[in-house]
């Protein structure tokens, strides 16, 4: 090879590499500028079925780095450590922005308020403790770093830290897609919707006051499902665990009164409002409502529209600037400032 040929070959090398990437070999990761956005799926009340679904959702999002933060099967706990670890995993993936997509069906639930605090959207953390039966009652679970059930002597949790802008997308509960999915699930289960009642069963907050607010939002969703699917009546089953005995008795009476009242006029179809359908059924079985009801455990999981909504919500939120109005001045475990 003479000198002229060698120089020509070297000059064509970058173009050839670029053509190879465009042909489907994928971009070469390196130390170039950060481009695009990453998608952080925020999942709550995660059980085995929910975890499998998250794997499918991650695989379905193409062209973007995707991570997920999985919160344990505990009411009103936002796992701060899992969320921060997921954010840290984006560091080697050359993203210019990270969009958090909360897979939460109640838009203003305590855990969403907590999530907004962690993302710097909300100024103050949320204190959502179980209501004690008496002053000597022991805590229902130990305090940990990943719990945001705050008391006056407990320091505020650190907000999430990221070197790139953070944006929190709207919840699934604020989208009409949720109503569409639940309405189709309910219609598929019912025999004659016009003569039946539909009940949305979900995992409610432990605090009585927060539970009332949760029920109000859930009822609005249930009514929208009823109207879209053509059911006679709609109701909500606000289930919770880890509460004191008087709350347990009150919840049990409320649940039985609701189901008995609905059963007087026809059949009952129950659809899980929370993504973790298995846990909803466990709580229903623990506090049997009495009358027979139809149930197949299918809620939002496994519906193709969930993935479509995630993609659309992330793409729209990615257009926004850094959503952090409030930041901590302390460093995270990696020595970075937020």
Features:
globular; single chain; 338 residues; alpha/beta
Report on the architecture of this protein:
The chain has 338 residues and is α/β, with parallel strands linked by helices. The chain is 40% helix and 12% strand. It is built from nine helices and seven strands; from the N terminus they run H-E-H-E-H-E-H-E-H-E-H-E-H-E-H-H. The protein has a four-stranded parallel β-sheet with strand order 2-1-3-4, with helices on both faces. Strands 6-5-7 form a three-stranded parallel β-sheet, sandwiched between helices. The longest helix is centred in the N-terminal third of the chain and has 23 residues, at 3-25. It is globular. It starts with a helix and ends in a 21-residue tail after the last helix. Residues 3-32, 134-150 and 331-335 have low confidence and may be disordered.
Task: Furnish the topology, listing elements before pairings.
Elements: H1 3-25, E1 37-43, H2 48-60, E2 66-70, H3 80-89, E3 97-102, H4 110-118, E4 166-168, H5 176-189, E5 197-203, H6 208-229, E6 233-239, H7 245-263, E7 268-272, H8 277-286, H9 304-317
Parallel strand pairs: 1-2, 1-3, 3-4, 5-6, 5-7
Helix pairs in contact: 5-6
What is shown here, in short?
With 338 residues, the chain is α/β, with parallel strands linked by helices. It has helices spanning 3-25, 48-60, 80-89, 110-118, 176-189, 208-229, 245-263, 277-286, 304-317, and strands spanning 37-43, 66-70, 97-102, 166-168, 197-203, 233-239, 268-272. The radius of gyration is 24 Å and the shape is globular.
Task: Write down the overall mean pLDDT.
Answer: 82
Low-pLDDT residue intervals, each spanning 5 or more residues: 3-32, 134-150, 331-335
Number of domains: 2
- Biggest sheet details: 4 strands, parallel
Distance between termini?
55 Å
Taken from the alpha-carbon principal axes, the silhouette is globular
Q: Considering DSSP H and I runs of 4 or more, what fraction of the residues is helical?
A: 25-40%
The CATH class designation of the largest domain is Alpha Beta
User: What's the CATH architecture of the largest domain?
Assistant: 3-Layer(aba) Sandwich
- Number of helical segments? 9
> Which strand order do you get reading across the main beta sheet?
2-1-3-4
């Amino acid at each position: 090879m003479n000198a002229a040929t060698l120089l020509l070959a070297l000059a064509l090398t970058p173009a050839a590499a670029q053509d190879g990437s465009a042909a489907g070999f994928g971009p070469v990761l390196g130390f170039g500028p950060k481009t695009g956005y990453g998608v952080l799926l925020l999942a709550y009340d995660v059980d085995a079925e929910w975890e499998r679904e998250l794997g499918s959702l991650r695989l379905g999002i193409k062209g973007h780095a995707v991570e997920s933060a999985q919160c344990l099967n505990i009411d009103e706990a936002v796992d701060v450590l899992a969320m921060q670890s997921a954010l840290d995993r984006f560091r080697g993936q050359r993203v210019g922005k990270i969009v958090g997509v909360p897979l939460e069906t109640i838009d203003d639930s305590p855990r969403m308020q907590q999530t907004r605090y962690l993302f710097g959207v909300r100024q103050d953390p949320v204190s959502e403790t179980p209501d004690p039966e008496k002053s000597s009652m022991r805590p229902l679970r130990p305090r940990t770093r990943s719990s945001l059930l705050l008391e006056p002597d407990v320091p505020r949790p650190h907000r999430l830290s990221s070197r790139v802008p953070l944006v929190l997308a709207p919840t699934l509960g604020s989208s009409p897609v949720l109503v569409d999915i639940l309405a189709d699930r309910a219609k598929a289960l019912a025999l004659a919707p016009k003569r039946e009642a539909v009940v949305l069963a979900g995992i409610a907050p432990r605090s009585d006051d927060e539970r009332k607010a949760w029920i109000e939002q859930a009822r609005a969703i249930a009514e929208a499902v009823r109207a879209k699917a053509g059911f006679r009546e709609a109701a909500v089953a606000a289930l919770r665990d880890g509460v004191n005995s008087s709350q347990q008795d009150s919840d049990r009476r409320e649940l039985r009164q609701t189901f008995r009242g609905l059963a007087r006029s026809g059949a009952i179809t129950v659809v899980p409002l929370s993504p973790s359908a298995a846990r909803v059924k466990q709580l229903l079985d623990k506090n049997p409502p009495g009358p027979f009801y139809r149930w197949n455990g299918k809620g939002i999981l496994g519906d193709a529209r969930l993935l479509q909504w995630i993609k659309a919500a992330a793409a729209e939120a990615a257009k926004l600037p850094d959503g952090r109005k409030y930041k901590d001045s302390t460093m995270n475990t990696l020595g970075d400032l937020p």
